[in-house]
Design brief:
By secondary structure, this protein is of the alpha+beta class. The protein has a domain of 115 residues. It has 4 helices and 8 strands, in the order H-E-H-E-E-E-H-E-E-E-E-H. The chain has an 8-stranded mixed beta sheet with strand order 5-1-8-6-2-3-4-7. It is elongated, with a radius of gyration of 25 Å.
């Protein structure tokens, strides 16, 4: 009778330890982070670097967003072909400052954020299939890149959490209280 209550107590302790640590691990492990470089009143060299950056260009004007491709900077203008950004992207683009984290899973892949440059234009633009913006209208650039140090730190902490979970489970299972 005594051994069965000890076994039940050990199993209960093992179950709750596993439940608590699993919840922690599943909610805060293996995150990917990005960093943003912001340039207010960008120089001509900053704007010319956009052409060679090989990243997606997102144009912000008032509350509207466009994806700009075939970017050319010449004669004091930035020009390119414009595509509408779909509403499912709006939430992520507008809320990216809350957490510099993006998902990279099978069902949700937001890794496109690390391949983007956001341009902010002042005054109202007329946009159809293409756009031609005077360079002085661009008041801010945000360049998104992977934050390798934060992503690596998340990986290390996640692995340490898993190692801790395995240690607790192994210690509980092989403790003298657990034996018959």
């Amino acid at each position: 009778m005594k051994s069965s209550s000890i076994l039940l107590s050990s199993l209960r302790r093992l179950f709750f330890s596993f439940l608590i640590l699993s919840t922690f691990l599943l909610s805060s492990c293996f995150h990917n982070y990005y960093k943003t470089t912001v340039k207010v009143t960008p120089s001509l060299s900053d704007l010319k670097a956009i052409q060679s950056a090989n990243k997606n260009l997102i144009l912000h004007n008032n509350d509207l967003l466009w994806n700009v491709s075939n970017v050319k900077i010449e004669d004091g203008f930035l020009s390119g072909t414009v595509y509408k950004i779909y509403p499912e992207r709006y939430d992520f683009i507008n809320n990216y400052r809350e957490s510099h984290r993006y998902r990279r899973r099978e069902n949700v892949d937001q890794s496109y954020i690390i391949n983007e440059i956001h341009l902010y234009a002042k005054d109202q633009l007329t946009v159809r299939d293409s756009v031609k913006i005077p360079l002085e209208m661009i008041w801010k650039i945000e360049i998104f890149d992977k934050d390798k140090s934060s992503t690596d730190a998340s990986l290390i902490i996640s692995l340490l959490g898993i190692a801790t979970l395995v240690t607790i489970v192994a210690t509980t299972v092989f403790s003298p209280d657990f034996m018959f």
